[in-house]
Design a protein that fits this description.
The protein contains no helices and eight strands. The chain starts with 5 loop residues before the first strand and ends in a 6-residue tail after the last strand. The radius of gyration is 15 Å and the shape is globular. It has one domain. With about 110 residues, it is mainly beta. The strands form three sheets. The chain has a three-stranded antiparallel sheet with strand order 1-7-4, with no helix packed on it. Strands 3-2-8 form a three-stranded antiparallel sheet, with no helix packed on it.
């Protein structure tokens, strides 16, 4: 039986360096399939990254203060937020039978 890749929406609500779908075998790191690594955007580009869409919520006041940065040799999406929230979304194709885990890395620079 084959499974068709299903469209899924990946949500980002923090500064993420790398988003990955990962094979979910117990006791195994499994294969990684990058969803986003920000390499397609020039360092210093700001706003909603190409390929992502604004995801607005009722009553929200998003600023979309995002900047692509280089952090410890990797690209990252830096986000600033003050009294608001900014959410972006991206449609992705994923074979959830093969890669059922979504993992990401993020670093908080300062807590509210």
């Amino acid at each position: 039986m084959t499974t068709n890749p299903l469209p899924r929406r990946a949500f980002l609500q923090a500064a993420a360096a790398v988003l990955l779908h990962r094979a979910g075998r117990a006791g195994s790191a499994g294969a990684h399939v990058p969803v986003e690594d920000w390499r397609g955007a020039p360092v210093g580009s700001s706003g909603v990254p190409a390929g992502w869409q604004k995801y607005e919520t009722p009553g929200g006041h998003p600023a979309y203060d995002f900047t692509v940065v280089e952090d410890a040799g990797r690209r990252a999406l830096h986000m600033k937020s003050a009294a608001e929230h900014s959410t972006i979304a991206k449609d992705v194709q994923a074979d959830l039978a093969a890669t059922p885990i979504l993992a990401w890395q993020w670093r908080v620079l300062s807590l509210p």
